[in-house]
Amino acid sequence: MSQSRDDSQHQTLPAPPVNGNWAEWAANLTVAQRESLRQFLTCDQETGFLNREQFMDLLRRELQRGRRYKRILSLAIVRVDNYETVLADKGPVGAAQLMKHAATLLLGRIRDVDAAGRYSPNELVVLLPETDGMNGAMVASRICNSITASQWTYEGETAPVPVSVGVAAFPRDGKDWADLIFWARTDLEPHPC
């Protein structure tokens, strides 16, 4: 379920149809163009992770599965704490590079069955199926340590990347997505890494 993006495979899409016939337009796309369009519609363009809508859809489905089959899962939120400062100092391009840096390091610390998404401009989320709260906290700690130990370089300047992580587990901390997001975000505040 984890995601990555290969920019070398980006395919240019044809111009929109002048006659409004989107079905014909879509039917004439190559396989590579269809994949490029799918990536554009489902993934965050800066990190390559699932966009918020797609991640939330996946989280809802996993929670339904968890309730039905009595399975556990954890949700981790990783907040890049200096995002606003970088946005103000370096602009949107610098902030995008910062999030891409954090996302790359995060991706190296999760399993193939885990899913990562972009929840807000400065927050990444990770869905950890079959993972209880204690093991979810261990994964979040590894992610945190990996990112905070790194140095982010932009326009010749290097800087640390401070992050905070929060974890919530299903069913321990809540029965629906809103509960999990709330408790994971609540866990962010007293536990910066």
Describe this structure in words.
With 193 residues, the protein is an alpha+beta fold. The chain folds into two domains: 7-42, no CATH class; 52-188, 2-Layer Sandwich (Alpha-Beta Plaits), CATH 3.30.70.270. The chain has six helices and six strands; from the N terminus they run αααβαββαβββα. Strands 2-3-1-6 form a four-stranded antiparallel beta sheet, with helices on both faces. It has a two-stranded antiparallel ribbon with strand order 4-5. Strand 4 and strand 5 form a beta hairpin. It is flat, with a radius of gyration of 18 Å. The chain starts with 21 loop residues before the first helix and ends in a 5-residue tail after the last helix.
List the helices and strands and how they pair.
Elements: H1 22-27, H2 31-42, H3 52-69, E1 73-80, H4 83-107, E2 115-120, E3 123-129, H5 133-148, E4 151-154, E5 157-160, E6 163-170, H6 177-188
Antiparallel strand pairs: 1-3, 1-6, 2-3, 4-5
Helix pairs in contact: 4-5
Quickly describe the structure.
The chain is an alpha+beta fold. The chain has helices at residues 22-27, 31-42, 52-69, 83-107, 133-148, 177-188, and strands at 73-80, 115-120, 123-129, 151-154, 157-160, 163-170.
What is the share of helical residues?
Answer: 40-55%
In the CATH classification, which architecture of the largest domain applies?
2-Layer Sandwich
Class inferred from helices and paired strands: alpha+beta
Shape: flat
Strand order of the largest sheet: 2-3-1-6
The strand count comes to: 6
Summed over residues and divided by their number, the pLDDT gives a mean of 89
Instruction: Report the CATH superfamily of the largest domain.
Output: Reverse transcriptase/Diguanylate cyclase domain
CATH classification, class level of the largest domain: Alpha Beta
**Fraction of residues in β-strands:** 15-25%
Q: Kindly identify the CATH topology of the largest domain.
A: Alpha-Beta Plaits
| Total separate domains | 2
Radius of gyration: 18 Å
Quaternary organisation of the protein chains: single chain
In DSSP terms (H or I, runs of 4 or more residues), the helix count works out at: 6
